[in-house]
Specification:
Nucleotidyltransferase, domain 5, about 400 residues, about 40% helix, 5-stranded mixed beta sheet, 12 helices, about 20% strand, 16 strands, alpha/beta, Arc Repressor Mutant, subunit A
Amino acid sequence: MPHDWNGIRLIDLAELQLATSETARIINRDIVLELIRASQPISRADLARRSGLGRSTISQIVEQLIRENWVREGAMGSPPRGRRPTLVGLNEDLVAIAVDIHPRQASVALVDLNGRLLSRWPVPLTSDPAASMRLILDCMQRAHSSDSRKSIEGVGISLPGRVNPETQRLIFAPNLKWPDFDIKKMVETKMGLPVWMENDATACLLAELTFARMDGVRDAVLVAVAEGVGTCVLTNGQLVSGSNGMAGEFGHVPIDPTGPRCGCGKKGCWEMFGSTRAALRYYRELRPKSHVVTFQELLNLAEEGDAAAAQALTMQAQGIGRGLRMIIAGLSPSTILIAGDVTSAWHRFGPVLEKEAIDLTLAGSPPVIRPALEGEIARLRGAAALVFQRGTRHGSQATMTVAEQPA
């Protein structure tokens, strides 16, 4: 996005693109759709008042959204006087197939346009990407046929690694350990639906922007904590992708060169101290004879009063905090969101991370640190958001500038 500097608007001539009437229509359509999402059910007259657009323009946009299946008419309003208006809202029968892939398991879900999970299925995975994707596809086909009333818009896939935005192929996923494989082509061929893929942290932040109403937040970082640690950066309202889509790999920045060797090959990466795998390692060190194998088991033990489990989670929280130092000092976000299973134990993680934010802020107010909306399923909601964004605003929030289009 261009910035103002001493009254001169900086323009990158390499990216120069003149505004057209079609640009105005796209911006206005996106704004109206977001107003409907935020205030549904809502009348056309209220949409005109809130957007500043003329009623004829609103009517055209709403009719377009109805034709495109994004919006439908519903109940009648009850004004103090005059004719009762027909209210519009999002079409809840429009759904996405969302896939969240972890190193050893995946989840497949149906998610509606409001971000609600309608159903969910677990899928075991192997180190063979083709065999794993066949299992996922079998589950996706069951999801496809589970409710004939739903209209499936596409497939979104959240991945524990980085996806090249040009080739849409997975290019960096040290914890997944899959060889090069064209996931997108296999799914599109088998399902006959469009497919969008993205890094899990980016998907989570996109879910926050799409479903959680982050209006006014222009600078934020989302930290996705799972078997690894991934981040996505929002700067001046724009998602930062970087060269080859690799921006935000803070999880693989070494914070202790004497630490354990990471899956990426380096020693002491942030994720070796702040991930769920790190918490399990801490517990094994504290209780060498333990048989705890999942992070959920560790959470349960801590709640049951196991002191070693509680200490392992505190050590993990401190590990996450160590990595937040470089994010706070380097990016100075106003908000830091945490996604993943750790959010279900926020009473353990939140106070530690908030203290780190206060201690590490160099000047001004510390960033707000909070869990992502339904943080443990944020990746599935993010996968659905990839579909519902349809690429029109992928990588940025909608530009909230209303441009009146010709009637």
